[in-house]
Design a protein that fits this description.
Glycosyltransferase; 2 domains; five-stranded antiparallel β-sheet; eight-stranded antiparallel β-sheet; 693 residues; Beta-galactosidase, Chain A, domain 5; alpha+beta; 18 helices
Length: 693
């Protein structure tokens, strides 16, 4: 954490010896590294690549990204930077200024537009005027870099790269001083605290920052060590170390800690590439892991580009892709001000399996890099067809001429290393997807063990709500609870979850896949969530859910719950997608119907005890939206076993009637649907049902 004077003295000394023909590494032996592969090249691309990147932005696939980079309102940006920015607002205003710098500098590098240079330099000036670059503190005084400091550090390094000769020697020195005093030290402090949590003197949020809620940060050195907020400062510290390699006395140790952090964080990915924080955080996190790896490879020849199973992690994202029908829209409940509730347009064509805080679309920005570096044409298919291209690096790495290989049927049924199960008929909007959330805790999770998403004929029919709040005092915190998922309640209560006083950190809740099988046209899975419910309901002996998916559009859900003590009722909820006001749930007798504009689902239910079927809506304030659901309630008892047999049909067709019968050793489902016979038996004499279809 060197001072300005130390930095300037070191920079001057290195400049002097370089002029005498000696390398900087001779002065800074501690900064020694393998021979750079392209020491004079760009951090992520060279100026010679600019025409190719500009042409990429002209492709239809990049229309939205092009608007973000080249279609900005420069007059408004300049007005904001000159007159409106608040230098005490890090959450909103620093983020806007950082984005203005990044896009203006990149746009100038691609187009040479001098107006962009003006905006970039103005953004540099205003960001430099911030007293600190983040709003988190250690010991109440020292800045810790989790978000804004890492983002701004990366932006400054990239701007130094992209603006090149347009920056005077004095301007470059001043920018590097900002990195070395406000950026890298804050990032280093964050990573050091995660590595040595016992040495942390207390983390807190700067009380001067306007934030809509309060959180206890005392355990954050432990909590953040397994979240995306570790890899963002890792990337920033690493890139700062790469940029100032051999020219700053602390660059070597910045780089060393960043490398250690990246290696440690790689274990957050499963052996198959899965990532527990969900698809939305996957794209942002993996991009930063790659940016650091690419920068140090290009500048220093250090190759850490295979820390994780990169082709596998792209397949993880591909498995979570779930496009649906309809037009893009913004939820009517979305507020303009910052409320710690995610914002963003929901484009059904870019839909995803949204377990936890997965956002509204998969960002496939990294897929082209994976394809090129790892020789994986399926990743090029993902880059071309799946989700969205949100980040500027997507335009850098995309190769329109690359060979693409479409996913085959072998990827239709996936049981991931983290116990998510996805079964599908394809990747088109009209195809069917069944997603089952088993597995363990994770940052940004919800209380959603054994919950189900079912999409058919372009419509979400069993749903997982979007845009849950990140703070517990907001009404939409409810959307994190079991009651807001297509899951089981016992006595009206869900499984264990935290109260949010530490943020969106992990719970202790586990469910585990006990059996998973696939065959021609079918998939079955049984998951045990007993442990998750026992943490809050000690009387629970067993909570098992079994799915039987008969492709393309029949889904059976078997719930079995055993209790000790006083008899209790058990409820199974089936959430309805209604964000744009077009979803309905109706209940009649032992059936319920879910209606969407493009499809209808009809479900029959039967249990070993008395069942009640009803429709209702989540207890949200009206301004937060109307979120309906259907509910099957098994009357108070110690033993519960009930089966929900559902069939979906496109608009204009009626779902078939599925008949459920109780047998001596389990269940039998029969009927006719979409012109074909449906037959299935489930023998439930053991913990894992024996299923015949």
């Amino acid at each position: 954490m060197s001072s300005r004077r130390t930095f300037l003295k070191t920079a001057t000394a290195i400049a002097g010896v370089v002029a005498l023909g000696r390398s900087a590494s001779e002065v800074q032996a501690a900064a020694a590294a393998p021979k750079p592969s392209a020491p004079d090249g760009g951090l992520l691309f060279d100026q010679a690549d600019a025409p190719r990147i500009r042409a990429t932005l002209d492709l239809p696939r990049f229309a939205e990204l092009k608007k973000k980079i080249l279609g900005r309102d420069l007059v408004s940006e300049e007005r904001f930077l000159k007159d409106e920015i608040k230098l005490t607002d890090h959450i909103t205003d620093q983020s806007k200024a950082r984005a203005a710098l990044e896009y203006a500098a990149l746009s100038f590098a691609l187009t040479g537009d001098r107006r962009e240079l003006v905006v970039a330099k103005l953004a540099i000036t205003r960001l430099s005027e911030y007293a600190e670059w983040d709003y988190f503190l250690e010991a109440g005084t020292q800045t810790i870099g989790f978000q804004r400091a890492p983002e701004t550090t990366i932006a400054f390094c990239m701007a130094l790269d992209w603006l090149g000769a347009e920056l005077s020697a004095a301007e470059r020195t001043a920018m590097e001083e900002q990195i070395a005093t406000k950026g890298a030290p804050a990032c280093y402090r964050a990573l050091y605290g995660m590595k040595y949590p016992d040495r942390v003197r207390g983390w807190s949020m700067n009380p001067a920052e306007k934030f809509p809620g309060k959180m206890d940060l005392s355990r954050w050195p432990l909590i953040l060590n397994a979240t995306n907020l570790k890899i963002i400062p890792t990337c920033a510290l690493g890139i700062a170390g790469v940029h100032l390699h051999g020219r700053h006395p602390d660059a070597a140790r910045w780089l060393e800690l960043a490398q250690q952090s990246a290696q440690a964080f790689a274990t957050m990915y499963g052996s198959d590439g899965c990532y527990d924080e969900g698809a939305g955080y996957w794209g942002y996190t993996t991009m930063h892991l790659i940016m650091f790896a690419e920068a140090q490879y290009r500048r220093l020849g250090i190759d850490q580009r295979s820390l994780i199973n990169y082709p596998g992690t792209v397949r993880y994202a591909l498995s979570l892709a779930m496009p649906t029908a309809g037009a893009a829209y913004v939820n009517a409940a979305e507020k303009k001000e910052y409320t710690a509730v995610p914002k963003g347009v929901l484009d059904p064509a870019k839909g995803l399996v949204n377990f936890g805080d997965s956002g509204v679309a998969i960002d496939a920005s990294i897929a082209s890099w994976v394809a090129r570096v790892h020789g994986d044409p399926l990743s090029d298919y993902v880059a071309h067809h799946i989700g969205s291209m949100e980040q500027w690096v997507a335009a850098v790495w995309y190769r329109p001429e690359a060979k693409r290989v479409a996913p085959g049927a072998e990827l239709h049924d996936v049981h991931m290393a983290n116990d998510l199960v996805i079964s599908r008929t394809g990747w088109k909007a009209e195809d069917t997807v069944v997603a089952f959330r088993s597995g363990g805790p994770a940052n940004h999770e919800h209380a959603d063990r054994n919950s189900v998403i079912f999409k058919a004929y372009g419509e979400r029919l069993f749903h997982d709500p979007f845009k849950a709040a990140y703070i517990a005092n907001h009404p939409r915190w409810l959307l994190r609870q079991t009651e807001a998922h297509t899951a089981v309640l016992i006595g009206g209560k869900g499984h264990q979850y935290h109260d949010g006083h530490e943020g969106t950190n992990s719970s202790w809740a586990w469910s585990r896949v006990r059996d998973y099988r696939t065959g021609p046209g079918w998939m079955t899975v049984t998951s045990d969530a007993t442990e998750a419910y026992q943490l809050v309901l000690p009387e629970v002996k067993r909570v098992l859910r079994t799915l039987v998916f008969l492709k393309p559009d029949v889904l059976l859900v078997l719930d079995r719950v055993s209790l000790t003590g006083a008899p209790q009722a058990v409820q199974a909820r089936f959430q309805v997608f209604n964000d744009e006001g077009n979803g309905k749930a109706e209940a009649t007798g032992r059936t319920f119907t879910i209606r969407r504009p493009g499809a209808t689902l009809r479900a029959s239910v039967l249990g070993v005890g008395a069942l009640t079927v009803r429709s209702a809506q989540l207890n949200l304030p009206a301004e937060e939206g109307v979120l309906p659901y259907a509910e099957v309630e098994s009357a108070a008892a110690r033993e519960h076993e009930f089966l929900t047999a559902s069939a979906a049909a496109p608009v204009g067709s009626a779902p078939g009637v599925l008949v459920i019968e109780r047998t001596a050793d389990g269940w039998k489902v029969s009927g006719s649907h979409a012109g074909r016979a449906v037959k299935a038996t489930l023998v439930t004499t053991g913990e894992t049902p024996v299923i015949t279809v």
